[in-house]
Amino acid sequence: MQNYIPKILITLSLLSITAFPQQRQGNFPGGSIYGKVFDSATKHTIEYANIVVFSLKDSSMVTGGVTNSEGFFNLSIDRPGEFRVEVRFIGYDTEVIQTSIRPPNFNVDLGEIQIHPTAVLLENIVVEGSRAPVTYEIDKKVISPDQMQTVISGNAADVLANVPSVQVDVEGNVSLRGSQNFTVLIDGRPSLMDSQDALQQISAASIDKIEIITNPT
């Protein structure tokens, strides 16, 4: 039996980077930590990677945010000190960087940060270079359900719940960046069912891949 290949067509502009609001301490003029996140294998930039900054002094969280469509982030820092920056993304090892903000260096450029797909250890054999759960092409995101073992027994909506920028509520309704205005194609043809119903009816095990196209032609 031929696998279903759903596509979601979306016409929305990309979100800019978000960060948690802060208040500056004392006479500190304010600083920043910024950089750009890449896939170490493909060299493609990674959108929606999570960036979290912790204080080395007490391990408290200082700020956080996500990368934009070009993989860039710029986080405001409200205090001087030593910091631990963690770069996180589904299917990748967490990258940890230590840095400091002290006069006269209030703005820290972490440069190009490369994160690595997670390796799988099976009976003392390290398997590397397997397909990442989410890959990025010029005009779309491609999701591989077979690389998401935790949802393989679920449906298409369960798969999408693990994709950055996609939200699935408790009733299984899917939205992208807050919008439910999308079209589902199955093997290149519009679904005869309602888009939401289609995503809940198709089992994850029967899906070869899901493509999210943000600017369909």
What would you say about this model in short?
The protein is mainly β and 217 residues long. 6% of the residues lie in helices and 39% in strands. The N terminus is likely disordered.
What does this structure look like?
By secondary structure, this protein is mainly β. It folds into 2 domains: 6-13 and 119-213, Ferric Hydroxamate Uptake Protein, Chain A, domain 1 (Beta Complex), CATH 2.170.130; 31-115, Immunoglobulins (Immunoglobulin-like), CATH 2.60.40. It is 6% helix and 39% strand. The chain has helices spanning 156-160, 195-201, and strands at 6-9, 31-39, 50-55, 61-66, 72-77, 81-88, 95-101, 107-115, 120-122, 125-127, 134-136, 140-143, 166-168, 174-176, 183-186, 189-190, 210-213. The chain is elongated and about 60 Å long. Residues 1-24 have low confidence and may be disordered.
Index terms:
about 220 residues, 2 domains, 4-stranded antiparallel beta sheet, 6-stranded mixed beta sheet, disordered N terminus, Ferric Hydroxamate Uptake Protein, Chain A, domain 1, mainly beta
Count of DSSP strands: 17
CATH class of the largest domain: Mainly Beta
User: What is the name of the CATH architecture of the largest domain?
Assistant: Beta Complex
User: What structural class do you assign from the helix and strand content?
Assistant: mainly beta
What's the domain count?
Answer: 2
